[in-house]
């Protein structure tokens, strides 16, 4: 029986780099995009031998902005995947897109080629905030993209929002979500703004924390978000993700459940057979060696049992369902309570963790300080 596999395909191109973004992406030329697609096809086809073990159930086009590629280029990538890998009967195939980069004709092409989930990078419903973030689209263009996507046959659409923007109040955030949920969506991701070094936002706000919402405001925003979205039919299933019933991102769940995934393209990360590795971020190196991934893989690390246990906990506890004692024992042959007695006792007693039947999960308060809680499940802490 073939093993389950997910594919992540990185498209590092944008129309414009956003002011807060530190992802591997840049403004590109038509020639760069075409050269890259050809390289991706060659990389994919180099995995024929590897692919014999697997059946692909999820594919995720991330970036960057994958929708800057032409429909024909995207189809060529998927054709290469289908030529090399056996696909599940009904795989989840997600494509990230930004409003204004997916016209009606292209969306129709996406559906015909088997893409069945869109993740739209909205970030805010207010045009003044979009301008602040360095986005090049408007909220009206987002609504137009959703309308076209429905007409093209998409019934699984997700939108990304960023909270805790400079000067943002709880009331302003409430208005954002109330407006957004007037649009039919199946999934919403909400990420708190992080000021990353090297970005335009860091130059602007890195040393001016007084311009950002304080910790209490950010806390109120987070707690209100979960309660409000639940009232609108979205159940939180991970720290930053909310979905209607049966509409969770299957691909993203595999990251938190430590299922195998193969990263394709520049800078893409993989986790296969408990080996973590990433592709080079060096354009020249990737393009010259695209037919031989061994020549551009970096940071290859086999995860010993202690690291696997750590990941089981700090990735699994990101889910609202938390982790299963039974799954831990089946994976490692040891009882979770014996391996993590100290950390579990500490956080069950202080209320950061809760337990129900077989499962252990973060409490509401624990979610607010999740990084501190999860750090206690690292053996070198």
From TrEMBL:
Q: Please name the InterPro entries in this protein's record.
A: Aldolase_TIM (IPR013785), Coproporphyrinogen-III_oxidase (IPR034505), Elp3/MiaA/NifB-like_rSAM (IPR006638), HemN_C (IPR010723), HemW-like (IPR004559), rSAM (IPR007197), rSAM_sf (IPR058240)
Report the family membership: Belongs to the anaerobic coproporphyrinogen-III oxidase family. HemW subfamily.
Keyword Secreted on this protein? no
Q: Which GO terms describe its biological process?
A: porphyrin-containing compound biosynthetic process
**Record-level Gene Ontology MF annotations:** 4 iron, 4 sulfur cluster binding; coproporphyrinogen oxidase activity; metal ion binding
Q: Which UniProt keywords apply?
A: 4Fe-4S, Chaperone, Cytoplasm, Heme, Iron, Iron-sulfur, Metal-binding, S-adenosyl-L-methionine
Q: Which gene encodes it?
A: hemW
The record's function comment reads:
Probably acts as a heme chaperone, transferring heme to an unknown acceptor. Binds one molecule of heme per monomer, possibly covalently. Binds 1 [4Fe-4S] cluster. The cluster is coordinated with 3 cysteines and an exchangeable S-adenosyl-L-methionine.
Which Gene3D superfamilies does the record associate with it? Answer: Aldolase class I (3.20.20.70)
| Record-annotated membrane-spanning stretches | none
Pfam families, alphabetized:
HemN_C (PF06969), Radical_SAM (PF04055)
Its recorded name reads Heme chaperone HemW
Q: Where is the Radical SAM core domain?
A: 1-235
- Tell me which GO cellular component terms the UniProt record holds: cytoplasm
């Amino acid at each position: 029986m073939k093993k389950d596999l997910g594919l992540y395909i990185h498209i590092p191109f944008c129309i414009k780099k956003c002011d807060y973004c530190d992802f591997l992406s840049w403004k590109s030329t038509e020639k760069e995009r075409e050269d890259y697609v050809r390289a991706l096809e060659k990389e994919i086809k180099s995995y024929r031998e590897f692919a014999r073990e697997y059946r692909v159930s999820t594919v995720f086009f991330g970036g960057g902005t994958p929708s800057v590629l032409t429909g024909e280029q995207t189809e060529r990538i998927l054709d290469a995947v289908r030529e090399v890998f056996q696909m599940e009967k009904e795989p989840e195939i997600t494509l990230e897109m930004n409003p204004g980069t997916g016209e009606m004709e292209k969306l129709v092409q996406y559906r015909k080629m088997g893409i069945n989930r869109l993740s739209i990078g909205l970030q805010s419903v207010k045009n003044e905030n979009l301008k602040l973030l360095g986005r090049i689209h408007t909220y009206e263009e987002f609504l137009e993209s959703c309308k076209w996507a429905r007409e093209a046959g998409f019934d699984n659409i997700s939108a990304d929002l960023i909270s805790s923007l400079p000067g943002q109040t709880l009331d302003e955030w409430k208005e954002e979500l109330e407006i957004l949920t007037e649009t039919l969506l199946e999934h919403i991701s909400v990420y708190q703004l992080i000021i990353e070094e090297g970005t335009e936002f860091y130059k602007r706000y890195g040393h001016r924390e007084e311009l950002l919402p304080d910790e209490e405001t950010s806390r109120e925003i987070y707690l209100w978000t979960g309660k409000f979205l639940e009232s609108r039919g979205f159940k939180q299933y991970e720290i930053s993700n909310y979905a209607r019933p049966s509409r969770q991102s299957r691909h993203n769940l595999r990251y938190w459940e430590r299922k195998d995934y193969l990263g394709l393209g520049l800078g893409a990360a993989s986790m296969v057979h408990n080996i973590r590795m990433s592709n080079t971020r060096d354009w020249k190196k990737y393009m010259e060696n695209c037919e031989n991934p061994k020549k551009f893989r970096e940071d290859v690390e086999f995860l010993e049992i202690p690291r696997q246990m750590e990941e089981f906990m700090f990735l699994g506890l990101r889910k609202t369902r938390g982790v299963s004692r039974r799954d831990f024992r089946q994976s490692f042959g040891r009882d979770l309570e014996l391996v993590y007695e100290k950390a579990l006792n500490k956080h069950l007693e202080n209320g950061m963790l809760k337990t129900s039947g077989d499962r252990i999960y973060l409490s509401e308060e624990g979610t607010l300080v999740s990084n501190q809680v999860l750090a206690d499940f690292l053996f070198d802490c």
